[in-house]
User: Which sequence fits this backbone?
């Protein structure tokens, strides 16, 4: 296993000295996770593996943009993998603009006092929270993240009124906010 | 922020489920609204936790592949670790443009006059949505119109008022659906907003009959 601090140290080692051993350690841990995550949306194994490889190469390229005070490594790599998945879907539609250009993940934090404190340890908190969500809430959250479906598509698939899906999302987010604000204050 | 984006839309965005047009609208709102940014960051942590916590059975379907690691390491020879990017500074003339808009504002982009005090700049994004920047002089209004599909608006400079309220920089409006609305730019700075519509709007009022064919053909 890789602790949040260890993972952050590895990314900083890549940024500081192009540390290939650090990259290999990250790859061992995260390439299977990204691949498994992408496969959940129905993507075939080969394509999911390509996404995982592209995501990990992006981790190498962008290592200097990682800020452990802002996000955990898991969150950061998730965001990269998500963008790679979007690019993959849009490439099928003939788009060339890369998602990294507009999603805010690589943008340096602006100078505001309201700095995010979603550092590594909050992963544990989020994991606890996931265990505490109702089955109804969890199914919506998992469909959104694993299958990249909009809340409208989720409502259609589950044959639920849109308002029901919205209220489940809002309740789940309320719990997420409460759980994380304990850390932030 | 008096008009935040709905949370379910922030989830769609954080999960990467939105089409390019709506995703740009949410990205601009997130860039301008610290509360929305925090929500999206929290949602990112949720996505990270779901990915990190992949079950052993799911990981069996994606075992670690030593040959893939070796191929990837070989590819790194041609990939530089990029320096930390400098903070985003908008180009002169587009000081109102948050970072996610910058890649879409090439030098060839021009404002086009639609009628007095109202200009449009159409952005080229993939997908079914029509994505435009609108520029409305203070006191000017858009003609009375209604929406067939979803519509998202983010204010980037100045502000406007319609029957649903007053919208300032960073505010996010979700199209009022079948109701008609007639936004009017507030006094002060010229109002600049990004507007994303799923389907062409339908103009009502005395000029609508003449303008609708042009809207449908994408002329205005």
Assistant:
């Amino acid at each position: 296993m890789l602790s949040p601090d260890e993972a952050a140290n590895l990314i900083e080692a890549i940024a500081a000295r192009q540390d290939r051993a650090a990259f290999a350690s990250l790859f061992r841990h995260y390439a299977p996770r990204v691949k498994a995550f992408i496969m959940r949306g129905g993507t075939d194994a080969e394509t999911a593996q390509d996404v995982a490889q592209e995501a990990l190469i992006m981790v190498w390229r962008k290592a200097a943009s990682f800020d452990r005070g802002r996000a955990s490594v898991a969150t950061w790599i998730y965001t990269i993998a998500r963008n790679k998945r979007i690019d993959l879907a849009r490439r099928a539609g003939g788009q060339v603009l890369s998602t990294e250009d507009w999603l805010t993940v690589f943008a340096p934090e602006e100078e505001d006092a309201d700095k995010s404190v979603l550092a590594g340890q909050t992963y544990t908190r989020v994991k606890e929270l996931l265990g505490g969500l109702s089955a109804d809430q969890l199914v919506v959250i998992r469909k959104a993240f694993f299958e990249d479906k909009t809340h409208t598509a989720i409502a259609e698939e589950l044959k639920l009124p849109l308002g029901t899906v919205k209220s489940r999302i809002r309740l789940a987010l309320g719990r997420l906010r409460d759980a994380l604000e304990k850390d932030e204050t | 922020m008096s008009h935040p984006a709905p949370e379910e839309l922030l989830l769609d965005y954080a999960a990467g489920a939105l089409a390019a047009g709506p995703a740009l609208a949410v990205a601009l709102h997130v860039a301008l609204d610290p509360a929305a940014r925090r929500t999206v960051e929290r949602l990112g942590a949720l996505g990270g936790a779901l990915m990190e916590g992949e079950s052993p059975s799911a990981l069996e379907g994606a075992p670690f592949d030593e040959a893939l690691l070796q191929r990837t390491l070989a590819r790194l020879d041609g990939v530089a670790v990029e320096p930390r990017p400098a903070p985003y500074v908008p180009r002169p003339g587009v000081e109102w443009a948050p970072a996610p808009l910058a890649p879409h504002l090439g030098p060839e982009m021009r404002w086009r006059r639609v009628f007095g005090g109202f200009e449009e700049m159409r952005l080229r994004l993939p997908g079914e949505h029509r994505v435009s920047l609108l520029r409305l002089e203070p006191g000017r209004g858009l003609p009375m119109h209604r929406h067939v599909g979803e519509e998202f608006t983010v204010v980037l400079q100045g502000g406007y008022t319609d029957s649903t309220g007053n919208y300032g920089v960073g505010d996010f409006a979700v199209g009022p659906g079948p109701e008609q609305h007639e936004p009017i730019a507030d006094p002060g700075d010229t109002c600049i907003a990004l507007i994303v519509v799923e389907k062409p709007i339908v103009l009502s009022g005395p000029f609508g009959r003449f303008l609708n064919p042009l809207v449908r053909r994408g002329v205005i």
Notes: Residues 34-52 of chain B form the longest helix (19 residues). Residues 19 and 107 of chain B are 25 Å apart (CA to CA). The two ends of chain B are 31 Å apart (CA to CA). The first strand of chain B starts at residue 112 and ends at 115.
